[in-house]
Amino acid sequence: MSPKIYCALFMLLCGYLAGSIPFGYLIGRLNGIDIRKYGSHNIGATNVTRVLGTAYGRICFLLDFLKGALPVIFIGYRIGLGTPIGQGWSGVLVAAGCILGHMYPCWLNFKGGKGVATSIGALIALAFWPVIIALVVWYLVFLKTKIVSVASLATAVATPIAALILNLLGWARTPWIIILLMFAVGAFIFWRHRENIDRLIHGQEKSFKK
């Protein structure tokens, strides 16, 4: 294989290993439980919040966010700058690896979280303003519905659309490879939320009340 392929695989693997750290599961273990046996049986921040409370949920979200953002910044961009594939591709591959690692961690039989917090972290390191706009959408939708899954799905749609609109306006341009990654991540998030979508259709999805 060529040096470019070795480099691409290395970046993808680094991202995967970082993203596969199951912080939600570890937080549950620190509290004497297996978080996968409670609530929605998910290791993400939403389930941690429901089972262990807001403080632990925020910690989980922050850690999942950082395991997406920091590898892109320090491995994808800094190390990737001097590699055969360059900084741009390195960042994208590390981001993709982080998101896949969170969703399918090898340490938990490839059953991980739904990828929202880690995706936000990874993508905000690649394209700041589109993700900021998408986070505003998340907040507004959550205020209206009080349903995290609805807000998360709205964010998955809003992120690539915001990037496209900003590109058309000629402001804060996002490379097309990153926009394609945003669409792919959005599709994965919808796939990971398929049970939530089914509950939404049947009016059974849980909400967070004040």
What tags apply to this protein structure?
210 residues; mainly alpha; 2 domains; 10 helices
Tell me about this structure:
- By secondary structure, the chain is mostly helical.
- It folds into 2 domains: 1-126, no CATH class; 128-210, no CATH class.
- It is built from 10 helices and no strands.
- The protein has helices at residues 3-19, 23-30, 45-52, 54-79, 86-103, 116-126, 128-145, 148-169, 176-192, 194-201.
- Helix 4 (54-79) runs antiparallel to helix 5 and helix 6 runs antiparallel to helix 7.
- The protein is globular, with a radius of gyration of 17 Å.
- The N and C termini lie far apart (56 Å).
- 46% of the residues are buried.
- The model has no long low-confidence stretch (mean pLDDT 95).
Short précis:
The chain is an all-alpha fold and 210 residues long. 73% of the residues lie in helices and 0% in strands. The mean pLDDT is 95.
C-alpha-based Rg, rounded: 17 Å
Q: Total helix count?
A: 10
Oligomeric state of shown chains = single chain
Q: Which consecutive residue ranges, at least 5 long each, have pLDDT under 50?
A: none
The secondary-structure class comes to mainly alpha
